[in-house]
Amino acid sequence: MAKKKRTTQMSSEGKTELAKAIAEKSESFAKHYENVELKVSKFFRWISGWLDKLLFNQKHGKIVALILAVLFFVILNADSDAIFEKSLKNAETLGDYPVSAIISDEAYEVTGLPEQVKVRVIGDISDIKNVKQQKNLRIIANMTDLTEGMHEVKLTTEGAPSGVDVVLEPSNAVVTIKKKSIRSFTLGFDYVNRFKMDSIYDLSEPELEQGEVYVRASNETLDKISYVKALISVKEDYTKDFETMATIAAYDENGDKMDVDIIPSKMKAKVKVTKPSKNVPVTLVPNGVIPNNKAIESYTLNHPKVDIFAKQSVLDNISELPISIPASTLTSDREFSMPLIAPNGVTKISESFVNISVKLADAKETILSGIPIHIINTLDGFSASFVNEENKSTSVTVIGAEKVIKEIKKEDIKVYADMSKVDKPGTYEIELFVEGKNKLASYKTKEGKVTIKVEEK
């Protein structure tokens, strides 16, 4: 037999109690929800008020704006910095590379092409390393299809691996192409590194294979050439005649070397090496007036003669080596040392210093009459003559130690009028100058000036 299913039926009172309990729970939940909602609403109102005070307050607004800007910058650049750092690993600047011009340099002259350009390579690190190690990269300016005139030339590269991109700066150039001409120039010479040789040696004019060379360039460039020289390099050990190959170079009027074709570019040069010298006496020349009416009676030197070294043309014009001393210091007999000063053109003196012993005596005077007056340095195109023939000679007073002035003759004295500053016809009072061979005495003329007439020829 099948069992009967049990059912429980709730009484009406039970149902009422259950409904009351559910209603009470619902009311409690509603109140709790309303309380939470109120608290959340208060919290957000507090936050909103705080943000209003912070953001819209002038005192704090700038600080907030700065903080926000920094945050945005960090966020936006975080990825780009990583990308940039990654790209640097595959790029490198190699520096300056020379530019090779492809054109007939015998027929054309090119100006405006840079000598070097900056090279940057981009690619794999291994490929960049190969470029640096193999050194096959060349920068080319191909102008084989261009004629005379101005052109823009794109610079290209050779020798770079296919996976490497080469960036040139600049990447093109504006050039001017001109046809070349040939012109002959007289050849001069110059010694290079002359200072390396001992100054006692002199170099003769070189014997070159030929006296002129040919220069190839545009007519405009040829017109700027001022001179062409054979540059002869001198070495320290050149003490005898030598032969060497001289480099030929052309220069403009400012002395700047010019980039031109010279035929031939080198030439054999033969040079003679000499050691010209001359033994000359050392003489004492008092400068000024010796105190106490004294004069130099005599002096002695530990080196009365010395050897001087110079070109022969310089030596021919030097007969003595004077030493100037301040006369005001000669208050009594004394001994002192003086340096030997090389005259112009003299490269070396055998002695650097000389010891001098001076003996003084009372100064005396004597008069020498009939000393002729010479007119010198008259300018070209003019003639000069004395207004009075009586003024052709004068008397000279000689002052010095008695022993010294007794030995002085009229022939040892020269009186002259210098006309180098007179450039117009007329009659002039010209100052007289007097010199004597013996520098221990002083000289003065009776007349300080002479009247001279200047006329055009």
Automatic annotation (TrEMBL):
Pfam families cross-referenced by the UniProt entry: YbbR (PF07949)
InterPro entries in the record: c-di-AMP_regulator, YbbR
Coiled-coil positions: none
Record has Transmembrane helix as a keyword: yes
Alphabetically ordered keywords of this record: Membrane, Transmembrane, Transmembrane helix
Keyword Transmembrane: yes
Transmembrane segments: 63-84
PANTHER family found in the cross-reference section: CDAA REGULATORY PROTEIN CDAR
The protein's name: YbbR-like protein
